[in-house]
Design goal:
about 260 residues, alpha/beta, Nitrilase/N-carbamoyl-D-aminoacid amidohydrolase, 6-stranded mixed β-sheet, about 25% strand, globular
Length: about 260
Amino acid sequence: MTVPTLRLTLVQAASALEPEANRAALAELAAAHAAGSDLVVLPEAFARDFGEAGSDVSPFAEPLDGPFATAVAAAAAAGETAVLAGMFEQGPAPERPYNTLVLRGSAEASYRKVHLYDSFGYRESDRLTAGPVEPVVVEVAGWQVGLMTCYDLRFPELARALVDRGAEVIVVPAAWVAGPRKVHHWRTLLTARAIENTVYVAAVGQPSPRYCGHSMVVDPFGEVVAEAGPGAPDAPEVIRATAERSVLDEARRVNPSLLNRRL
């Protein structure tokens, strides 16, 4: 089914260390912003923040039918939409859970982060297990939506694999750690993934000061459709944007790089 638009709502909000508080915040934020949205996206690790670098997050891991995923489903049902948010999921290694996105509501999927953040002095793989290399694309309101998480953004081959499976929009929940040049990297990489794949890219991050914020939607020509500021932990920022199929089709006609590939 060809649908002309996909209405996106990105909620740039900080997660806390208390899972119950995050579930309550999820319900409140979704209720406030779901109206008129086909997809509401919250950041990576929204079920429970990472805590101090190197912290053990395994006590906060849940199954895919646990309290957080159930809260996501309830929020989506109440808003008659789809809601995507990040959690830690129990896996085969109890001490090293998955970093997982759960999509519930009018569309359902789960994605386990493939690329763990072993970079810039961090060692995410010490505490988490990488997901299988299996790109996840799901239909949301008639659009093919590919899922990535944070550090995945630095690996263009994953974005291309999503597009090879039909993705028209790539959604990137993140907790992009703040630091020198990090906002520049974030904005540049989001724009590059959009241009090189002629897709929409919708990315939502946790806010400053620990993270970078700057949630944004980029169209297939690389134009920024909407962008948040750095934000603050006590002030969620919401941006809305509409993916237009006419823009997607025009970009792929004018810039047929996917058709011109030789590798």
